Amino acid sequence: MKNIIYIVIGTFLFAISVTLLAMPNHIAEGGIVGLSLLIYFGLGISPSISNLVIFIILLAVGIKFLPRHMIYKTILNVPLLSLFIYLTENLGKPMEDPLLAAIFAGLLTGVGFGLIYQAGSSVGGTSIIALMLKVRLGWNLTGTGFALDALVVLAGIFIIGPVYTMYTLIALFIGKLATDYVLGGFDSKKAVNIISPKIQEISHRVMNEMSSSATMFEGHGEYTKEKRSVLYVVVRSHRLLHLKRLIKEIDPNAFVVIHNVKDVSGGTFFATHHSYYGQESTTVPQNKGNNI
């Protein structure tokens, strides 16, 4: 039931991004929906019709090449998307600033896609064509899908013009970021690897002053042939500067590597301040759900 709710809400958000923002402001999309929008701008045919017709044609041509799970995932979403577009396509009005329309179209599309992907579904699109070309001709799936989306977007130059095509690119970029946030979480974190002769002192202060877990493991320096202790710490992004200052204060020459982390689950990365005082171990006892 949860996945169905995600699919319905995500598909609805995608639909209104098309009807309320893209259609009245001459902004296109990538994939099959983008092609449907270009048909609308060029011939006046509703995307609710062209999107469904194109999908049925692709399904009929490629059904013997497509895995059953892909058919099941799209057979609900595409008709639902066309239905939502049909119900809302007369509600949109042009905005004075097309850039604003592109930004919010990308935002709604990205959030919608994120919810659809979280439910394990999809809206079909060029991935169907890419998979057929992979099966028949052995083409690379990812590269082919990207090339097909790019062709649809570039075709917009001849229909909506270069300026609105650039607005489309802005919408696609924002949509990608929004999808990543929905899938990876808004509470971004940083993973930090620290190598230093004073690693024990750094570990102690990280746990006591930052109330953050630290995990220590042994490494081997290939150049020096020496064993070294490596400290692994995960902190929320807004605490990274505090951690860097702490490390520099203890050992200005410490070797520090910082990685972006989209999602952290399980473990004992964050706990309350009082959980750490007086503890000597490098891994903090479990205390989930608390803030640093």
From TrEMBL:
CDD domains: YitT_C (cd16380)
InterPro entries: DUF2179, N-reg_PII/ATP_PRibTrfase_C, UPF0750_membrane, YitT
Annotated localization: Cell membrane
GO cellular component: plasma membrane
Transmembrane segments: 5-25, 37-63, 70-87, 99-117, 137-160, 166-186
Pfam family, one: YitT_membrane
Gene3D superfamilies: 3.30.70.120
Main location: membrane
Topology class, membrane: Multi-pass membrane protein
Keyword flag Membrane: yes
Keyword list, A-Z: Cell membrane, Membrane, Transmembrane, Transmembrane helix
All copies of domain DUF2179, residue ranges: 213-266
Name by which UniProt lists this protein: DUF2179 domain-containing protein
Lineage: Bacteria, Bacillati, Bacillota, Bacilli, Bacillales
